[in-house]
Amino acid sequence: MIIQQKGTVLLQFSADWCGPCRAMEPTVQKFKERSKVTYQKVNVDTDNKIAQKYGVRNIPCFIVLKDGIAVGRQVGTQSVDQLLELVK
Q1: What is the predicted pLDDT for the residue at 2?
Q2: Mean pLDDT for each 10-residue chunk of the chain (88 residues)?
Q3: Three-state DSSP class for 9?
Q4: Domains of the chain and any CATH numbers
Q5: How far apart are CA 86 and CA 72, in angstroms?
Q6: Shortest CA distance to 85 belongs to which of 35, 29, 24, 27?
Q7: Which residues are catalytic?
Q8: Per-residue pLDDT, 26
Q9: Strand intervals (E) in 30-84
Q10: What is the pLDDT of residue 1?
């Protein structure tokens, strides 16, 4: 995991069984094409300790880390523009 990385990281907490999480895949792909921010997907079923650490209760959940510290959060499906605004 790259959570402790310097700089900005966008974490997406999701699960394979989550329909809205799967629906976010094309949006996340466009976000990755338009942003230089590091992106990391976190599966809440297999990485539940990380989800607990950040208090994730609903998915999809996007958390922005700056130098390893959580500085922003959005829950639910997002547009590319919303994700870009979140990581500013």
Answers
A1: 55
A2: 76 96 97 94 94 94 93 97 96
A3: strand
A4: 8-86 (3.40.30.10)
A5: 7
A6: 35
A7: 18, 21
A8: 97
A9: 38-43, 61-66, 69-75
A10: 53
